Amino acid sequence: MDEPISTFKLFGLTFDVGNMVSLVVVAAIVFFFVFALSRKLQMIPTKKQNILEMIVEYTNGLSTNSLSAKNAKPYGLYAFVLFVFLFISNQLGLFLEIAYNGVTYVKSPTSNPIVTMTLAVMALGLAHFAGVSKLGFKGYFKSTYLKPFKFWLPLNIFEEFANFLTLGLRLFGNIFAGELLLGMVNNLAFSHGVVLVIPSFILGMAWVAFSIFIGTIQSLVFVILTFVYISQKIQPEE
Amino acid sequence: MLSQTLFSSVSATEAGGFPIGNILFTAIIFLVLMWLIKHFAWKPLSEMMTQRADKISNDITSAEKSRKDAEELAKKREDALSKSHEDANTIISDAKTSAQKQGEQIVSEARNDAQSVKASAQKDIEQERKDALANTKDDVANLSVEIASKIIQKELKSDDQKALIDSYIEGLGKQNAR
């Protein structure tokens, strides 16, 4: 967190250039990946179409695990984009880290708490919106804040904030820690001459492999939790 | 940080404060990405998947239908076949009964014919026998009368004599019949 960042100000808002570049890179990778796979769609799928359909079926499965098939249908696109976006985001920093003048411009955007918190706000905002549109504002308010008893209200409000914080910080913490440790292994490699290069290399490889696993799991957890929250909001608890 | 001092004009580093604008940027780039994917990949892909699901369900339905049709057709064939078997059986049995009847009729006609032939033959025989007997009677009577008239040379009344001989012959016949 105490790494140098380059920023600029626009409309009184501060922007972090490194983070923006990472986000654009991830978005571009995701878009071209999906775009390339979705060319020449056929009734009988080709190899690449099969890959895309496999991912789509998988994310649809994630949403239908917590929601009924009918309720889950509008969120299919969101689940798909969110999953692929988070997956690429989590892995990007492990393979590509471009620094210029000491400022890291390309790394995992999800190792930045602002990005993960924004995604968490969007996910929870979607959940609350779904609750209001499904149950009406009264029903939504009742089922979200006044259950199981009326005086539970403060606890329920607190729970909403806890949901938001845990959803965002869990992802950030996992990815940030992964990158931090990878950086430490990197520093270790050259700290005592050539002695530690090979052990550090092996350690770094192991840690990258583990981080790939962590990144995959975390993108999965984020999507699953999003749908758990949505299902809590649209199904009044009896 | 050497690079920072060299390039401090661009980097505001920690002094820049909390980059709150990135919240906006993250949200916007995510929404733009979602829109692009929806436009270029999601819609055509889900349309294709829906089409495929429809096609598969249609295929299954039509396959079911043609299977039923085939079954029905086979059943019809089977029925027709068994019906023709029955028909053939009835035709054969009809033919058998009519042949039997005809045969019986022929046999009975033949029997009747034979009966009538036999009866008429018997009648003829009887008639002939009677005629022969009557002729013989007459001949014998005449012969006897001639013999008797020649032997006794006595004039006898022909009718009386005849009656007498007739009674003899009758007695003879009775003896023969015994």
Automatic annotation (TrEMBL), chain B:
This is ATP synthase subunit b. It comes from Apilactobacillus apisilvae. Coiled coil: none annotated. Residues 90-105 have a biased composition (Polar residues). Belongs to the ATPase B chain family. Keywords: ATP synthesis, Cell membrane, CF(0), Hydrogen ion transport, Ion transport, Membrane, Transmembrane, Transmembrane helix, Transport. F(1)F(0) ATP synthase produces ATP from ADP in the presence of a proton or sodium gradient. F-type ATPases consist of two structural domains, F(1) containing the extramembraneous catalytic core and F(0) containing the membrane proton channel, linked together by a central stalk and a peripheral stalk. During catalysis, ATP synthesis in the catalytic domain of F(1) is coupled via a rotary mechanism of the central stalk subunits to proton translocation. Component of the F(0) channel, it forms part of the peripheral stalk, linking F(1) to F(0). Residues 60-88, 121-135 have a biased composition (Basic and acidic residues). It is found in: Cell membrane; Endomembrane system. Residues 60-135 are annotated as: Disordered. F-type ATPases have 2 components, F(1) - the catalytic core - and F(0) - the membrane proton channel. F(1) has five subunits: alpha(3), beta(3), gamma(1), delta(1), epsilon(1). F(0) has three main subunits: a(1), b(2) and c(10-14). The alpha and beta chains form an alternating ring which encloses part of the gamma chain. F(1) is attached to F(0) by a central stalk formed by the gamma and epsilon chains, while a peripheral stalk is formed by the delta and b chains. InterPro entries: ATP_synth_B-like_membr_sf, ATP_synth_b/b'su_bac/chlpt, ATP_synth_F0_bsu_bac, ATP_synthase_B_chain. It is a single-pass membrane protein. It comes from the Bacteria. The chain crosses the membrane at residues 20-42.
